[in-house]
Amino acid sequence: LADLSTHQINRLVAHAYHLKQVSRPWVSPRFSEQPRRPGVSPTLLNKTIALLFSKRSTRTRISAETSAVLLGGRALFLGNDDIQLGVNESLRDTARVISGMCQGIFARVGDHSEIEELALHSIVPVINALSSLWHPTQVLADLLTLHENAFFTSIHPDPMMSPDLVQKLRPLRPLTVAYVGDSANVLHDMLVTYPRLGHQLRIASPENERYRAPKPVWDRVLELGCDKNILWTKDPLEAVKGADLVVTDTWISMGQEAEKEQRIKDFQGYQITEQLCREGGANSDWKFMHCLPRKSHEVDDEVFYGPRSLVFEESDNRKWTIMALFE
Ligand code: CP
Ligand code: NVA
Q1: Which ranges carry the Aspartate/ornithine carbamoyltransferase Asp/Orn-binding domain (predicted)?
Q2: pTM of the entire structure?
Q3: Which end of the chain has fewer CB atoms < 10 Å from its terminal CB, N or C?
């Protein structure tokens, strides 16, 4: 998302909201019958997007496959064991070959340099579906979820609004967003996005270099002037002070399985609980988000399955935001 202007980010989120509305049945308190859905135009007709995934995925893969179908196109899943890549063929040659036959590449890679190399050698657009450093499509879905939630907006929805009208995305009021946990790909995209959209970030992670944003990420934060709206502490209580939204991610990202024991030790005290947020002075109406998949180390069941949790709305919104990107 550091590559996009705030205008481009807002346009994508607004387009995702539009696609969601025209694709799903209306539910209106005023009209008992559901009017016919306008539907989406088949803008990907006869087009194929390659899903080049070297890591597991539930949400990102399903979002991509189902949204390509709704747009009249096809998503071609290419996992580790499906193609010659890594065994008989280089990433460079693979990029050129796939892009000669498909109209886009949506790639989930290990090291971030792999997606840079793909983008360099592909002759069609490449979208990052998660890398060691970034997870942009997750943060687009999170933004849509925030815009849809009345608590976060400055204008409340009109319950009498006609279902025939496509509603506009409501603007977000400036938010205080706390992130408690590992400095991983999802947080990194938050760092280069939320401050530019006028939100404050308060982050808590253990005081160890490996749990703080790496240099290539922090360089982008500085380049975009985002650091002014970021507080970074080792104290989770300090991070959640005044928070409207509390966010976390797994403590053990894909590829870090060998560090599991050490990480669980280092993150003791960083679990999101009602007690932590009460003691730290979060806003009484605070909400919770997590990209999933989730382990109970980082957030307890009371919060995760409780009324503050927006996790499954976030997961639903992966689809509409990825669909907007594909279009
Ligand atoms: N949040 C997310 O990217 O989930 P998946 O790994 O299941 O795609
Ligand atoms: N940080 C996590 C995100 C999973 C969607 C990981 O990279 O595994």
Answers
A1: 175-326
A2: 0.94
A3: C
